[in-house]
């Protein structure tokens, strides 16, 4: 069953969607951390973990993933991050979309991709193709 094969991605994706689409008054607040733009750090790590979970699930379930598949996952995550920012701006009470949030999402995706490709079987795949 595909849901069981990709459970890591599904769990992290669900958490990212919940945290991104909750109304402002329902989002968790961390009062003891008073860092300007701290939410950008959260965006970075949400997309870092989502990208890593996706790549781990692909590595565990697809014998020879293609470059097109990997690039499609990366592209899909970037597009999803953009759509979420638009939805937040237009449909979620008390939330706003932000180019900086989207940039933090992108940095998380890029950093996770770099980490994964340098430390996994994908590194061999990348060198061979």
Characterization of this structure:
- The protein is mainly alpha-helical.
- It has a domain of 90 residues.
- Helix content is 75%, strand content 0%.
- The longest helix has 25 residues.
- It starts with a helix and ends with a helix.
Q: Which keywords apply here?
A:
129 residues; mainly alpha; 6 helices
Question: What's this model, at a glance?
Answer:
With 129 residues, the protein is mostly helical. The chain has six helices and no strands.
Task: Count all strands and give the number.
Answer: 0
Report the principal-axis shape: globular
Number of helices: 6
Supply the helix-strand structural class: mainly alpha
Q: Kindly report how far apart the N and C termini lie.
A: 30 Å
- Rounded mean pLDDT score: 86
Unreliable segments (pLDDT under 50, ≥5 consecutive)?
Answer: none
**Strand residue percentage:** under 5%
Task: Give the SSE string.
Answer: HHHHHH
> Helix coverage percent of residues?
over 70%
Largest sheet entry: none
> Radius of gyration in whole Å, from Cα?
16 Å
Any chance you could write out the topology, listing elements then pairs?
Blueprint: H1 2-5, H2 7-21, H3 38-61, H4 67-91, H5 99-119, H6 121-128
Helix pairs in contact: 2-3, 3-4, 3-5, 4-5, 5-6
């Amino acid at each position: 069953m595909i849901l069981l094969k990709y459970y890591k991605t599904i769990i992290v994706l669900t958490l990212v969607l919940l945290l991104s689409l909750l109304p402002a008054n329902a989002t968790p607040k961390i009062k003891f951390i008073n860092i300007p733009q701290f939410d950008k750090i959260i965006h970075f790590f949400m997309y870092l973990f989502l990208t890593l979970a996706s790549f781990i699930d692909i590595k565990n379930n697809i014998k020879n993933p293609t470059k097109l598949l990997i690039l499609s996952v990366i592209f899909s995550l970037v597009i999803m991050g953009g759509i979420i920012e638009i939805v937040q701006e237009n449909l979620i009470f008390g939330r706003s979309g932000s180019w900086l949030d989207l940039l933090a999402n992108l940095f998380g995706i890029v950093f996770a991709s770099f980490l994964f490709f340098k430390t996994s079987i994908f590194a061999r795949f990348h060198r061979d193709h």
